[in-house]
Amino acid sequence: MIIPIRCFGCGKPTAHLWEKYNEELKKGKSPKEVLDKIGMERYCCRSLFLGHIDLLETIAKFKKG
Q1: In angstroms, rounded to a whole number, what is the distance separating the alpha carbons of residues 5 and 1?
Q2: DSSP secondary structure string, the chain?
Q3: What are 5-9's contacts with CB under 8 Å, separation 24+?
Q4: Are 11 and 32 in contact (CB under 8 A)?
Q5: From residue 53, how far is each of 20, 26, 64 by CA, in Å?
Q6: For residue 62, what pLDDT band results from cuts at 50, 70 and 90?
């Protein structure tokens, strides 16, 4: 849903890198290349970004009110 503020494994702050990651992916770069560029070296942090599915807009459709 929403990218975690810190990595679940090591506690490194990650949320501030999410926008940069998405921008670089839209330019056509590979995920490995982008993760290396933004400084995500640990496998726990990398898995956060690689396994994340952005569902915020989908879930917002079902909001009551």
Answers
A1: 12
A2: ----SB-TTT--B-GGGHHHHHHHHHTT--HHHHHHHHT--SHHHHHHHHS----HHHHHTT---
A3: 7/42, 7/44, 7/45, 7/48, 8/44, 8/48, 9/42, 9/44, 9/45
A4: no
A5: 16, 15, 23
A6: confident
Please tell me the predicted confidence (pLDDT) of residue 46.
95
Tokens 């569902």 — which residue?
Answer: 55
Contact 48, 4 (CB under 8 A): yes
Q: What is the pTM of this model?
A: 0.80
pLDDT tens for residues 28-61?
999 999 999 999 999 999 999 999 888 888 888 8
